[in-house]
Request: fold
Amino acid sequence: MLGLFLLLPVLALHARELPDYSPELLGLAMGAYGLTQALLQIPFGRWSDRFGRKPVIAVGLALFAAGSLIGMLAQFLLLPAAAWALTMLLRPQPSIALGVILVACCPGGNISNFLTHFARGNTALSVTMTAFSTVGALFFTPFNASLWGSLNPATDAILREIAIDPAEMFLAVAVLLVVPALLGMWVARHWPTFAAGARRPFRILSLAVFALFVLLALAANWDYFLRYTGRVVIAVFLLNLLGLTIGYWAARAAKLPAADRRAVSIETGIQNSGLGLILIFNFFGGLGGMAITAAWWGIWHILSGLAVASWWRRHPPAVAGARA
Reply:
């Protein structure tokens, strides 16, 4: 409690610089934190006396790390495997199939953090998973795209013809994801006031650039899209459904709390299709089926994510151990 009271005077001044600040929200946040601390300090204190402080802290950190690990497992192992199985079952055009696999190999999109918060999920876990998946994408995106793409004979023929260099894709992912993330953290550390003020304009700008990119991809392949609309829509719908479902049930199998399940589900079902489109145009020559698949995914996962988050928002998470 001493730490809480030491923080209050500083936080009251700093919070005014944060977007969407209001005295009511600040009071609610600090009141909820203080109440939670007051309710849990007695049982945690008894456990610390019995087992020691370090083991209790380690257990708390382990539970948080478990959520991130389950999310990474669902995102970089289960979802790409499900995408491959889906292409083998539906047998779409090879370029569409490879687009489905590549999208499934991309890390979670930043909009997943907003959707998790809107869905009353564990936003901290969502942000942590996004950070880990962004770094993990350096290795897992090129590796999974090559592995699962080669296991489908139709898409393997495209990979052999284009001869993708995983090292080049590794560097591209690093430049597109990791470097901007590190630069953003560096700016936020040294110029926090500027970073707080620029957050909203940059968020709007990034969404506008992404929307323009999606529209250009669709416009460049409009005839192809009209010809194979049904197959693209079905493939994207099923992959998105699989992502949301796999994330939720993987978290549930690990006995994570309801709010954590929502975070893992959304993080697994919302992929960074912007990265997918850039990789498609840089390494696959803007291949029509791949481009329209990634572009349609960029539209659909926002719509489905908002629908799922809205439904969950109307149904607050149950207490730990109950159904969500």
Residues 1-51 form one domain. The chain has a mean pLDDT of 77. Residues 208 and 257 are 35 Å apart (CA to CA). The chain has two domains: 1-51, 69-313.
